[in-house]
Amino acid sequence: MLTIFCAFVLFASFIEAKAPRTYVTVSDISADDSMTAQLHIAFSSEISGCGIVVGPPYYCAQDLNMNGPVTSVSLTNIQNKLKSYIGFNSAASTSNVTDDSVYIYIYIFTSKNDRVVVSSVVQLKGKIYSEFGARIKTNYSLSANHGFPTEDFGGKCETLNSVNHINDCDLNLAYDMLNHLYGGDLIKPPTGSITTLTGQFIAFDQAAFMNPHAVLNLDAKALDMFSLWANWMQSAITFTLPSLTVSGITGTSSSGVGASFDTQGYIYFPPACNKGKKCPIHIALHGCKQDFKSFVGDVFTKKAGYLKVAELNDIIVLFPQLIQSTFNLQNLNSCYDWWGYGSVNYANKLDPQMTGIKKIIGWPS
After folding, report:
1. Above 90 in pLDDT, residue 25?
2. For this UniProt entry, which residues form the secretion signal (predicted)?
3. Which domain holds residue 342?
4. 229 pLDDT higher than 50
């Protein structure tokens, strides 16, 4: 694995790939799926698809963390809050979802056997998006417990797997979801055989992306290393530039609360995407207790099934990373902010975490 401590190297790869903005999709799991919906709704002009895996709807917490299983949510309150944000330009217009030229796709997975977020609550997302005319595919038939279903990895499908929240259900959910989000023509990884990964799994400095001007202050000698970018993937050069800690962004920030971002995030580049092919980008957000550093290592990034689908279909997969907050006791589980622990703007586009992800992708402000 190559480690890169630099913002512009990764950004240059996005430019090289020239991924159309409407080819950016996002997914998440469990309660953090609220962040997926928040990100999609806030930036629906840039994100064309949203994958929802056993998670409650947008603004479900309504400023309160849950103290047990999610069993009921007010759809009216959600709709009113969304209208309010749109009115104040804190969320994108829902017309982006109904615009046929953008092709908005929604995938929703839930199970009647889920004991953490009951199926009826997850299905509210379908009701919300159906009002916007989105193209929705649902999977409500699998007898699974709460978790991310895979074809060949994880705990028993019907059992709550609290170790990493990934369940072996003989279902390649990553493929089923991404195939829908990208129009239905993806190549499926063969069942029962190994899909060789020939791309690059890269660690990058998230903080540098969120404060790119700091990189410009590096000395010219360090910046000269960027001229090697064209041959970087082929020659396997490892760039090591000073790591940046940005106040209010990373979990190690001196400001205290911050946005709980870890210093490093991860990204997978299929080979063709390093050679000028126009590749779509999928943002795969981890769930609570699924981040790399604090809880599960590379289990979510490498075992959930995203990489095999990406390899066969030339999709860049971005894995932003949060970390247990040592300053904010409300986020000891490395959760994305779906209830307001870090910002009163957690459900609109002013949210620090959503802004951070936006900067990583490189969308204009």
Report:
1. yes
2. 1-17
3. 2-361
4. no
